[in-house]
Amino acid sequence: MNRGARLDFAAIPRAPLEPGEPWSGTMSHKHPRHLTRPAYQDSQFMESATARPMRILAEYLDPLTRLRHAGVADTIVMFGSARMFPLEESEAHLRRLGRAARPRALQARREHERKLRQAHAAVQMSRYYEEARVLARRITQWSARFGDKPRRFVICSGGGPGIMEAANRGAAEAGGKSIGLNIQLPHEQYPNPFISPELNFDFHYFFMRKLWFAQLAKALIVFPGGFGTMDELWEMLTLLQSGKIPQRNLILIYGRKYWDEVLDWRAMVRWGTISESDYGLLQFADTVDDAFDRLRSELEANHLKVDLDWMG
Predict the structure, then answer these.
(1) Pairing state of beta strands 75-79 and 154-157?
(2) For the chain, how big is the Rg over CA atoms in Å?
(3) In sequence order, which residues have a C-beta less than 8 Å from that of residue 62 and are 6 or more positions away?
(4) CA distances to 118, 229, 234 from 299, in Å
(5) pLDDT tens sequence across 12-21
(6) Domain covering 70-86+128-304 in this structure, CATH number
(7) Domain coordinates of the chain in residue numbers?
(8) Angle at 265 between CA 285 and CA 253, to 5 degrees
(9) Whole-angstrom distance, CA of residue 84 vs CA of residue 127
(10) Omega before 150 within 30 of 0, i.e. cis
(11) What confidence tens digit (pLDDT) does each residue in 289-300 have?
């Protein structure tokens, strides 16, 4: 379209009403069968590139309204791999593979051995699922002392399986509410069943999902994970480093054995790509007790005052 040109909305095709569908638009006196509908009821228009700003705004206003209605004042965000399972499930899978007949063909035998290695690794990594579950339960039990008007330090996850499921599951076991910020993905990530139904959100836009991770978070607990976990970690670290979110917010890295092998944090200091104070933004824990004690100490020192502006 030429700059300054007027957009002829009348020329935009509008989907006709289906037979028997209620009508709530306008009607031409000359052509009474030409029924139209308001643009917001036209799915073809609402799913178009032109209406993208409206969809983005909806992914801000819907969580805003529902979180305020539920009385959520702030959150504790828990990240980690979607590929971790409860210990019982991982052990059962390993036993099934162990009982299976060993293939004779070389290629099939190599594939079976690869699956066995993966199953052994899954059993080892299941400790993080179980510990995330226990930690979320303890946080929820502790935060219950503040009541529900408003709800303080509500567990928030990415809404999917693995560590996300463990976080929501632990909160549910403690009798508390928890939030799931699910995202539409090509491989069909579905919300886990432990999210509080009224706090179960589904996003199309990654950046809007990230906004809601950061908006209310007073702490981020990062369990071992892959690209998605690292993406969210770097996002939060950058916001913290640049002062876009308060530096008193806690970032807690859980499981140093994994993270120290995957990332050499001190190397970034040695090479001068981050400062010593940047490195100081991180805290580390290897046990549920240590993580909970650090979290509670930081929250009691820095975040007991409610943000009344957010509560509306």
Answers:
(1) parallel
(2) 24
(3) 201
(4) 38, 23, 22
(5) 555 555 555 5
(6) 3.40.50.450
(7) 70-86+128-304
(8) 25
(9) 9
(10) yes
(11) 999 999 999 999
